[in-house]
Amino acid sequence: MKHVALMGLGLLLVGTVSGCDNATARGTGADKLVITGSSTVAPLVADMAKRFEQAHPGVRVDVQSGGSSRGIADARKGLAHVGMVSRSLKDDESDLYSFTIAIDGVCMIVHASNPIGSLTSRQVVEVYTGEITNWRQLGGPDRPITVVHKAQGRSTLELFLEHFSIHNERVKPSVVIGDNQQGIKTVSGNPYAIGYVSVGSAEYEATHGTPIKLLPMNGVEATVASVAAGSFPLCRQLNLVTPEPSSGLTQRFVDFAQSLAMHDLIAEHSFVPIVHE
User: Fold this and answer.
1) Do 64 and 18 touch, CB atoms closer than 8 A?
2) Which end of the chain has fewer CB atoms within 10 angstroms, the N or the C?
3) Cβ distance 238 to 103 under 8 Å?
4) CATH code of the domain made up of 105-229
């Protein structure tokens, strides 16, 4: 495994990702790449793809989101040349090749008007399992808690459940959402909601007027700076994966995504760039 070092900070630039229902890597010409998967990684890779296309006239890169599970499945089935996965590969995914392009964190968020400044891990568990159902039980207003949870197939869901040692069947959600922006929109529109999303996405939105508050975890502030310092408790790799050793156009894109030339884009998206040695 390559050694990586954390570098740099920045702001998130939210990109637009194409959303075709059926990606197909098979049968495409040598001048086209299909990349599918994590909705956390997709906006960043979409911006990388634009630069790659500019540097390689005649090449088209089709970036589609849908969750890390889709990225894994599509890469394995040949439906995509590259999958996007916002976590490390699991033991049963050793048939895939992984290339880390950045580091991110996952944090809890509440509405900016919520007087709650922090929650213990135990309190988060009790909220998500329905043992605590009213903010009054946590020292907040006498209002029911709207529990915002992630849909199956999202790596953010898997990381949340693993970190807090919760079985998904125990969770009592009020709302089930897909990507980070849906989570942020839901919490910012409901003063009594709580959710968990990408640290980078949440920090960008909070500093640009979206009424959300990032809650510290284990006493560590939920910031990109904490992720970069390695002190935030819930961090993750943002990876590109391929079903075999990459070559040709796929290898050129992977090398491009991991290059120093992409660090400005990674920082703009509020992720932490890494240096590959």
Assistant:
1) yes
2) N
3) yes
4) 3.40.190.10
Q: Under a CB-based contact definition with an 8 Å cutoff, are residues 155 and 38 in contact? A: yes
Q: Are strands 146-150 and 193-198 parallel, antiparallel or unpaired?
A: parallel
Helix ranges (H only) for the chain are 42-55, 68-77, 121-128, 155-164, 180-188, 199-207, 224-229, 248-257, 263-268
CATH class of 4-103+236-276: alpha beta
**What confidence score (pLDDT) does residue 25 get?**
55
Q: Which long-range contacts (CB under 8 A, 24 or more apart) does 138-143 make?
A: 139/115, 140/114, 140/115, 140/116, 141/114, 141/115, 141/192, 143/191, 143/192
Q: How many residues does the chain have?
A: 277
Confidence (pTM): 0.81
Q: Measured between alpha carbons, how far is 256 from 101 in angstroms, rounded to an integer? A: 10
- Measured in whole angstroms, the distance separating CA 159 from the mean position of its chain's CA atoms is 10
Sign of CA dihedral 44, 45, 48, 50: negative
| Residue 169 pLDDT | 96
Residue 99, number of CB atoms within 10 A of its CB: 19
The domain locations on the chain are 4-103+236-276, 105-229
pLDDT, tens only, 36-51: 999 899 999 999 999 9
Distance CA 26, CA 81 (A): 9
The confidence score (pLDDT) of residue 153 equals 81
CA geometry: angle 275, 45, 57, nearest 5 deg: 100
Provide the token pair at 99: 């290339």
